[in-house]
Structure formats: C-alpha cells, structure tokens
Amino acid sequence: MATAVRFDEEVQGDYFALDGKHYVVCDPICINADIGDAMPQFKQARAKIVRLGAVK
After folding, report:
1. What is the pLDDT along the chain (56 residues), one digit of tens a residue?
2. Among residues 36, 7, 2, which one has the least CA distance to residue 21?
3. Can you tell me the distance from the alpha carbon of 35 to that of 6, in angstroms, rounded to the nearest whole number?
C-alpha cells in the first residue's frame, strides 16, 4: 500500500489522475525515495484506489 497526495503546486514524479486531479505518489515504505518515486516493481502496476475522505 502506498499513499498519493494532491499538492497545490506542480510536483514531478509518478502520479495518477482521478476526477481530473493530479495525485503524486508518496510512499513511506520505499527507503530513500523522494516524493513522486514509486517502488520500481510497481511502476507499471494498475493501482486500486481507496478513498479515505476529504481532509479540510
């Protein structure tokens, strides 16, 4: 499992689009990974998206 975050400014890296919005991968498990770095073995995998609700 990994997380993805929608930033207010453009952030480069691995991402997906949902409802017209851009979400950047932020994987807390991948050691020494920068924001936007998906684990190599999952770069081509199809993501299953789990919505957690809006944060205000």
Report:
1. 778 899 999 999 999 899 999 999 988 777 788 899 888 888 888 888 888 876 66
2. 7
3. 12
Count of helix runs (H) and strand runs (E) in the chain: 0, 3
Q: Which of 56, 32, 41, 48 is nearest to 4 (CA)?
A: 48
Question: Could you tell me the two tokens for 18?
Answer: 């949902």
One-letter amino acid for residue 9 of the chain: E
Specify the pTM: 0.74
Integer angstrom CA distances of residue 3 from 38, 50, 52: 10, 10, 11
Q: Provide the residue type at 28 as one letter.
A: P
Closest CA to 16 of 34, 36, 31, 1: 36
